[in-house]
Amino acid sequence: MVRLIEVKRRGKTVWAEVAPEACPAGHRGELVPTYGGCPTAECGLPTRYWRCRADGCGDVAIDDEHVHRSGGGTSR
Ligand SMILES: [Zn+2]
Ligand SMILES: [Zn+2]
Predict the structure, then answer these.
(1) Which ligand lies nearest the alpha carbon of 32?
(2) Which residue spans within the chain are E strands per DSSP?
(3) Closest Cα to residue 19, out of 51, 52, 50?
(4) Prediction pTM value
(5) Would you give per-residue pLDDT tens digits along the chain (76 residues)?
(6) Which is deepest, 4, 25, 34, 52, by most CB within 10 Å?
């Protein structure tokens, strides 16, 4: 889910998308927002996430509101 936060810029209120500042490996400004199946193999639920474009990294930061599908699959 895309969340927006209120940001004051030069006296004007704008809405900015919540995004992590750095990938799990610490690269700043390299995250590319995307939407799709959770990159965690055992989950796969659609979510917002960010893929790091730094050379040789490819780490992903997942929306912190995303709840991974719990294993087992006995519900429902
Ligand atoms: Zn990275
Ligand atoms: Zn997930």
Answers:
(1) 1
(2) 4-9, 12-17, 31-37, 46-52, 60-62
(3) 50
(4) 0.70
(5) 567 778 788 898 888 777 888 999 999 999 998 999 999 888 999 999 999 999 999 999 998 889 999 865 554 4
(6) 52
Query: For the chain, how long is the longest CA-to-CA vector?
Result: 52
Domain range summary for the chain, segments of one domain joined by +? 20-69
CA of 14 to the centre of ligand 2 (A): 30
Identify the pLDDT of residue 73.
54
Calpha distance 65→12 (Å, rounded)? 28
What's the 60 CA to ligand 1 centre distance in angstroms? 8
Name the token pair of 40: 């965690």
Q: Which of 64, 65, 62, 61 is nearest to 30 (CA)?
A: 61
User: Can you give the pLDDT at residue 38?
Assistant: 94
Residues with a beta carbon under 5 angstroms from ion ligand 2: 38, 40, 43, 68
